[in-house]
Amino acid sequence: MENDTLTITDNRTNKTYTIPIANGAVRALDLRQIKTGPDDFGLMTYDPAFMNTASCHSAITYLDGDAGILRYRGYPIEQLAEHCTFLEVAFLLLNGELPTQEELEKWNQAVMQRTMIHENVKKFMDGFHHDAHPMGILISTVAALSTFYPDARILSNPLCNRKQIVRLIGKMPTLAACAYRHRLGLPYVYPDPSLSYTKNYMNMLWRRTEPTYVANEVLARALEVLFILHADHEQNCSTSTMRAVGSSNADPFVTTAAAIAALSGPLHGGANEEVLRMLDEIGAIENIPNYIAEVKAGHRKLMGFGHRVYKNYDPRARIIKRVAEEVFEVTGRNPKIDIALELEKIALNDDYFIKRKLYPNVDFYSGIIYQAMGFTPDQFTVLFGIPRTVGWLAQWQELLQDPERKIARPRQIYVGQEVRDFVPITRRAQVEMAAV
Ligand code: ACO
Questions:
Q1: Ligand 1 center to residue 305 CA distance, Å?
Q2: Residue 153 in contact with ligand 1 by CB distance below 6 A
Q3: If you average pLDDT over residues 9-17, what whole number do you get?
């Protein structure tokens, strides 16, 4: 459109600039021409936490936070959760289209054939403390995979990159299951490529002495749906980490390890674990009003509520609520669901939450389901990381193909000391707060 431009007048110089607008955005570098004189570096934008900065073009996930819409490659999340398997959605995210029957069979086989881990990885596992947090184990062992697959460093060959992607998707549940069993002191179970992705994971987690572990169909499907819902979510904290680290041409194993680290924080994927702790702390429905009062007084956060992008009901939370009922039919009702439902009801009618557009996010209900299925809270973020690996890798692949790709390197606004002369140690003043 001819008028897709922005005209800016710099009141410092009275100069006017016209810069193009494309896809609802101006290029930050176009502002660099706005200067007060030849020594001026040029205008920058200041955007801590990237509240209003797009860092890439992406064709993978569409998210409208105001309308509560989430689509993978154009398909509504509700339809994918209803009709697809997790690996089918993984194929879609990575390739842009849903697979044909033949493509799906080949893809399933390719991933399931890559579920084995090198025997030496088990030795790393054994080195961890019995109570090591599984996210710490996952970060370390995924990074360690880099040393087993030196070909992963060659990023110029798309086929080689694809091999690493399949390896990572295949091995993630195996590593996660080993981390789980290490904690319990149970022997590791080898993957069974004849099973589906989720049933194989359940087999590696829960098989004891029986010759064949038979996963409950409802629970396996619930896990499949939860994996689909968590597979991608555009440029969130961990995905941005994936892109930032990937932009330095680091190999996909160490890059994925960095993304897992970002996911582990309680403000991101670690929130599902925190929700369970919060519900335990609340303990009973009659304690909710006091808890809400503490949240409103700013003493704590309502974990599983709020989102940087969703200012409406998270569509994933809506699907998860339905899955919860199906799971409880099998496992019996997790009493925490009643506290959660009441908490949601009270919060959604309270001015504090209405004014700030705080709604339940994906983490609010997922932990309750996982607990009912037999997972301990420290496993919840791992259950987020396994499927999100697909999204990270789809985004990483897109990054590698992006003609505008450059190493990620934000600017800063320096607010420190001006230049000053060195002070010898005998003449220095003591620095308060510098205790080591
Ligand atoms: N409980 C209480 N108040 C909240 C919450 C919450 N969960 N979330 C935000 N607020 C309040 C803030 O205090 C702030 O209030 P103010 O305007 O009076 O200062 C206002 O709402 C805006 O919040 P911000 O922190 O500016 O929102 P931001 O977009 O930076 O944060 C975040 C988003 C991190 C998700 C935040 O809502 C939060 O901490 N939620 C709890 C943790 C959580 O559930 N994380 C999972 C996110 S989804 C995911 O990663 C899978």
A1: 7
A2: no
A3: 98
Instruction: Give the pair of three-digit tokens for residue 58.
Output: 């992406």
pLDDT digits (tens, 9 = 90+) for 291-331: 999 999 999 999 999 998 888 888 998 999 899 999 999 99
Q: Where in the chain is the domain with CATH 1.10.580.10?
A: 76-267
Quote the ligand 1 centre to 360 CA distance (angstroms). 11
Alpha-carbon Rg of the chain, whole angstroms?
24
CATH architecture of 271-373: Orthogonal Bundle (1.10)
Residues of the chain with CATH 1.10.230.10: 271-373
In the CATH scheme, what architecture does the domain 76-267 have? Orthogonal Bundle (1.10)
The crossing angle, in degrees rounded to 10, of helices 101-113 and 158-184 is 60
The reply to whether ligand 1 has any atom less than 6 angstroms from the CB of 268 is yes
**C-alpha span between 343 and 358 (Å, rounded):** 13
Alpha carbon distance 327, 347 (integer Å): 25
The string of pLDDT tens digits covering residues 92-131 is 999 999 999 999 999 999 999 999 999 999 998 999 999 9
Q: Is any ligand 1 atom within 6 A of the Cβ of residue 363?
A: yes
Quickly count: other Cβ atoms within 10 Å of residue 20's Cβ.
Answer: 11
Residues whose CB falls within 8 Å of the CB of residue 65, separated by 6 or more in sequence, listed in order = 307, 308, 309, 310, 311, 312
User: Closest ligand 1 atom, CA of 361?
Assistant: 48
Ligand 1, atom 41: closest residue by C-alpha: 303
What pLDDT is attached to residue 303? 92
Does residue 2 sit in helix, strand or coil?
A: coil
Quote the tokens at residue 177: 């299951």
- Reduced to 3 states, what is the DSSP secondary structure of residue 121? helix
Catalytic residues: 268, 307, 363
